[in-house]
């Protein structure tokens, strides 16, 4: 048994394909992701836009957030939701907007970044309160001498600087301990109130639990529906990527394995017709998978009819498919000239499309990528197609010019693949 095992090991060591997938490819991934995650770049600063309706709090709030986020002030906005959808399409990554209008509202196209900014803002306001930068207007409490609970509703003030403050809604319940003192209990904070001849007056403050509101933009169904919409959009476009590179490579390599490529050459059928036939057949087959994804997505609160009727999605779909089909055409050369086994080519095509899917925002949200990997993702044409389709589905109107770069990249990739792909080696 040991001798047989040694023979198998020697055979594997002589096989270049086995060495590549067993040794070289893992080392390659370690080098790439090691440089990305551990070699530099660091975390991405979340882009946060601030719009102050009154024009007094914006700069102070920007100073408080600038150390943790990439803060930009906005002069005027007609509709916050339209703004974040448009900016998300332009930057091809989620965008968060903070609107200050007496209270604070956070608008975001990302559940991840939206909640991070929302939590940070609540922490900043609470920190200002603990430092003594919190005050509240006096509010009279009727019937102060009676030992019963009273609800107080008013406006609390959080002072960010000496000259600017933020008005926050406040609603707390107080109860009377005795005829001379009132204890306010809210979130484990005890604030003492005092009683005078006219009754009790508000003499302290408490942290309002709803000081900062959060709204995830892009779907009427809320964050759950937005997540499902994003997943459905990504999977439809991934189907195009997979069919383009894996399907095309598998079709042509099987043609070569069966010897039909030589028969086609003897029949003087030009390789362009064969390549085009493989492309069209895989495109039609991919539509079955895309349709299945859309149908299943309807069970997760996604409007399947709207998804299917959005032409921006199908324009992105076609570009994704043709871009990877061009790569699939090139990969067939390995079978013809290098005598690589067809199964190995298909495996390589699968690894390639998965690498793109995981590193360009399809299978992994762009929000969790480090800076270098995010820059790589944003440079790929697939990030443009994803942003274009998703912006349209979220109610925006992405400019058609967004597809100029992916269309040019697709034309080059498919033209090169069609020109260089060889279906048979010359004798």
Automatic annotation (TrEMBL):
GO terms for cellular component: membrane. It comes from the Archaea. Keywords: Membrane, Transmembrane, Transmembrane helix. It is found in: Membrane. It is a multi-pass membrane protein. The keyword ATP-binding does not apply. The keyword Membrane applies. One of its GO terms (molecular function) is ABC-type transporter activity. Its main location: membrane. Residues 234-391 form the ABC-2 type transporter transmembrane domain. The chain crosses the membrane at residues 20-40, 234-260, 272-302, 314-337, 344-364, 400-421. This is ABC-2 type transporter. The lineage of its organism: Archaea, Thermoproteota, Thermoprotei, Thermoproteales, Thermoproteaceae.
